[in-house]
Amino acid sequence: LAACDGPLMAAIVQHAQNAVDAASVSVGSAQGWATPKAGNILVAITNSDAVIDSLTGWTSRAHFLSDQDFWVYEKTAVGTESTISAALSSTDNATLTVIELDASVVDSFDLASAVHSANSNALSFTVTSATTTGAAGDLILAIVALHGHSVLPTLTSWDNSFTALSTSQVGAAAAGVTGFVASRQTTAAAATGTTTCAWDQTADNQAAF
């Protein structure tokens, strides 16, 4: 879970996603991504069955490497990011989701939890926050990354008033990867923002932030 200071609807300018079986994954105009405004906050989320190269110029907010490689990055846009790409160590399944947050509304990006994971043939996973958010109206992002499903899973729900932002998934084999992202605006100060994400096909490995 990541918390940002600022209201939900105004804070999220745009978001786009892509999923490939290739040596790199990109989000650009073909995925509906527009060049962001300079000064806004960008969040990039990657998940792959292969090792993902670090995104140059981005700050890592979360990383998990085990059966999958899962990253959450942040940067301040310079206004030229028309295409955002992540390279892989080899050709494999990979997902990328990018979110632009309005810096005039969101004045900080606060790390609110650590990555937690499980190796269980599961249909759901709870995203928990050990650290509370600071104020009513904060925007919370919840991210779940799956790996090892023989049938591509479909998102069925987020609870506790979280709204799905994106689903990126690829791979028909057991090495397939999926990424789910959701958000909510807190209604009270010091909210923890715990939520459970559910899907319809079992996945061997789960990681969340």
Give descriptors for this structure.
single chain, 209 residues, 15 strands
What can you tell me about this protein's structure?
The chain has one helix at residues 8-11; strands at residues 2-4, 12-27, 41-48, 59-65, 69-76, 84-101, 109-111, 116-118, 122-127, 139-147, 155-158, 163-170, 177-185, 195-203, 205-208. It is an all-beta fold and 209 residues long. Strands 1, 7, 8, 10, 12, 13 and 15 form a seven-stranded antiparallel β-sheet that branches. A hairpin with a 6-residue loop joins strand 12 (163-170) and strand 13 (177-185). The longest helix has 4 residues, at 8-11. Residues 5-9 have low confidence and may be disordered.
Seen as an oligomer or otherwise, the chain set is single chain
Largest sheet, in brief, is: 7 strands, antiparallel
Please state the overall shape, judged from the principal axes of the Cα atoms: globular
* Percentage of residues in helical conformation: under 10%
Please tell me how large the radius of gyration is. Answer: 16 Å
Low-pLDDT segments: 5-9
The first-to-last residue Cα distance is 5 Å
Share in β-strands: over 45%
* Counted beta strands: 15
What order do the helices and strands follow? EHEEEEEEEEEEEEEE
Q: Output the structural class.
A: mainly beta
Kindly state the mean pLDDT as a whole number?
Answer: 82
Please give the count of helices.
1
